């Protein structure tokens, strides 16, 4: 009788599994990412980044207590690991506890000597939600200096510039975000919003149509995966 065996061939690379998990998270496919991370952690059970990403998946699946347990456990055993504090900040951000989230994000930044653009981007978002646009603008500019090829940084700076009614500058940043990531549906939608404020209705309608098509393509892809 033939028996089933686990695939233990040497061509199974943990780095590839981890990359698949990261891609799935970026696409919002958190159940799929959890599956990949569980496989990855069989190979690399001590990977802090893998464990934290697993916690983030639980967080985005609204399993907050499971995420908090993972983050607390990592922090207890690795008190100087900056990213665990950023993950805890993300948890509190999603609970609308922005001041607490800012404290944890500040801790992450101190541990990296202000060397991580993602943490400055997060602080910018948090101050944006608190309606402190001046401080948000300061942090997003730091993030862009540190990582000048991040579409999300330009997108967020455009949001802030729109609050300052600097619509031409906001359009410029959204153009950069879209050039870096042509499938950035929300950037097209935000550019449409700014163009309406500039009375450029025809161009705004074109952006809305592009955003709708991109979102439809993504929805069709997810439905296709579900069928498979």
Labels describing this entry:
228 residues, mainly alpha, Serine Threonine Protein Phosphatase 5, Tetratricopeptide repeat, 12 helices, globular, disordered N terminus, disordered C terminus
Model description:
There is one protein chain. The chain is an all-alpha fold and 228 residues long. The chain has a domain at 149-217: Alpha Horseshoe (Serine Threonine Protein Phosphatase 5, Tetratricopeptide repeat). It is 77% helix and 0% strand. The protein contains 12 helices and no strands. Helix 2 (30-43) packs antiparallel against helix 3, helix 6 (98-111) packs antiparallel against helix 7 (117-129) and helix 7 (117-129) packs parallel to helix 9 (151-163). The chain is globular and about 55 Å long.
Shape: globular
The percentage helix is: over 70%
User: Which structural class is indicated by helix and strand composition?
Assistant: mainly alpha
| CATH fold-level label of the domain at 149-217 | Serine Threonine Protein Phosphatase 5, Tetratricopeptide repeat
Our Rg estimate from Cα atoms comes to 20 Å
Distance between the termini: 29 Å
Total strand count, please? Answer: 0
Task: Summarize this structure briefly.
The chain has 228 residues and is an all-alpha fold. 77% of the residues lie in helices and 0% in strands.
Topology diagram in text:
Layout: H1 14-26, H2 30-43, H3 48-60, H4 64-77, H5 82-94, H6 98-111, H7 117-129, H8 133-146, H9 151-163, H10 167-180, H11 185-197, H12 201-227
